[in-house]
Amino acid sequence: MVSFEAVELPRVSFPVGLALVAGVAIALRLLWRSDPNKPPMLSDVVPYISNTYQYMGNMDRFLARAKEAVKLKNIVGFHLGPKNFFIITGPQNIQALFRTSPHIDFEVFLLIAIESLWRASPEDYAKFKNDKSGRSATPAKGCENQPESKRYWYTLHRVLHKYLETTQYATMLARHYQRFFSEYLEQRPQGEWTEQTIMGLMKYDMAKAAIVASLGTHLFDMHPNLLDMAWPYDEVLVTLLFKPPRWLFRRAARIQDNFHAAISKYFVDANERFDWNGPDADADWEPIFGSRYFRELVKWMKASELSLQTCAGITSTTGIMGLNANSVPVCAWALMELVQDQELLGAVRDEVSTAFTTDPETGKRTLDSQKVLTLPLLQAVYVEVLRMHVSMNITRAATKPLEVEGYTLPAQSILQAPTQISHYNESVWGVEGHPATEFWAYRNIKYVEEKNPETGETKQVPRFEMRGRPTDFFPYGGGIAICPGRHFAKQEIMLSLALIVSKFEIEFLGWEKFDGSPSDRPPKEDSKYAGAAAVPPDRDMRVRWKRIW
Fold first, then answer.
1. How far apart are CA 336 and CA 333, in angstroms?
2. Quick check: 424 and 67 in contact, CB under 8 A?
3. pTM of the model
4. pLDDT tens digits, residue range 457-486?
5. Is 72 within a domain?
6. Which residues contact 427 (CB under 8 A, 6 or more apart)?
7. Nearest-angstrom CA–CA distance, 258 and 383
8. How many folded domains does the chain comprise?
9. I need a labelling partner for 338 at 20 to 30 A (CA). Which of 110, 256, 408, 420 fits?
10. Alpha helices (runs of H) in 216-341, residue ranges in sequence order
């Protein structure tokens, strides 16, 4: 056995040592590039360092470079530190990435989040890391005898699938959201013009309604300023993801500490108050834990014997920010587009009016949430905003050598499919006069003739029809690891827009920075969120609005 401590290395000066390291790195890069059996590599000014630095610090610029590189081939490699990473695109490659395979690991990115964002205890992290049985009901080969209580990925997937993805529970959750959001909107004076910022509306009224619908009112009873802690946490999630040194990112660490501490107090208090044998255990909604979904998630945490530290991390990151970090900016972008285009706003308002029913005796108007989901123009606006403003790198790991585009990628390679590349593919999304880089509400609308059965007259009516395939449009990911909350998110966003445009007259006043000072330009995407999911605007819109009913 060789002891590395016993090997005495020759002493060299720092410049010589640096030159040697650089020389080895350049030689390795040249060896890679000279091999025609290996895919092209993204240029790296300082090998192993430049791309890593840009990937960690300016994802938006990094993805712009990758987008240019994959125009020649549907794959380009780079090194993130010592790791082999590959950006892939193209329908067949992305379809293969989404497919369940023993050679592709779906959990690689989630394990990073479990450690850094959940801040799972070492014991809880090991439970997930060592569970190789998969998410399917049938355990993976070699794990047939693993008890169900130790199948953490599968049992979590089962809870999320049943209580977020099935129509019954997703609709139930959306119904409670609609009730709370309507109540918050109706706190505005009727018939009176007031001013409002769009992001302010979404980050507080919309976010609170989503949290109360899902987690109940008790959380806000304990922490009335919850959202003032949550949104700073959202700002540092990307920074925290790769677990940087605390001493280097003290503010981010402090924000995470404070938010997790607040949620820990809630979690302990709620469990002490709640009667798991009482009638509320199976209720559609109750104030302490809120929805059936969240109660079942809490039951899973308890059954899995997770520490309080881990439970607080799951509640903070998955339970709270998972509800809002994507839907809030998407809804804000959509409303900004509508307010800027009064003709489009009017068309959406007219369409939404068909989803209301009026009680003939009381005159009360009720919005049919299921009909809202079928409105073609509103669907088209929703999809177009998702296409433009979700920037997420779908990530998988190759457990064995994997063939992509005719190249054999080594085991342990990380593969990423960025939405920011596929969602802006001109050959798929471009329309004459409306390039993929601009918002166009009618991109996924097709007009068809419809005949009136009574009069025999025909007219052109809009129909929602996606231009792209699932391998061209994947804002929620794909395969077995697809976002389980996507159905609720869609209902939340579309219901929010429907309620706002129907209840209010809205007029554009101007753009402003988040400190309230005026801005001389409209918003761009806030580049620090690139690659993380929905990218919020870096400016706000100020409007004047009046509640009609």
1. 5
2. yes
3. 0.91
4. 898 999 999 999 999 999 999 998 999 999
5. no
6. none
7. 36
8. 1
9. 420
10. 218-222, 226-241, 250-273, 292-303, 308-313, 322-324, 327-340
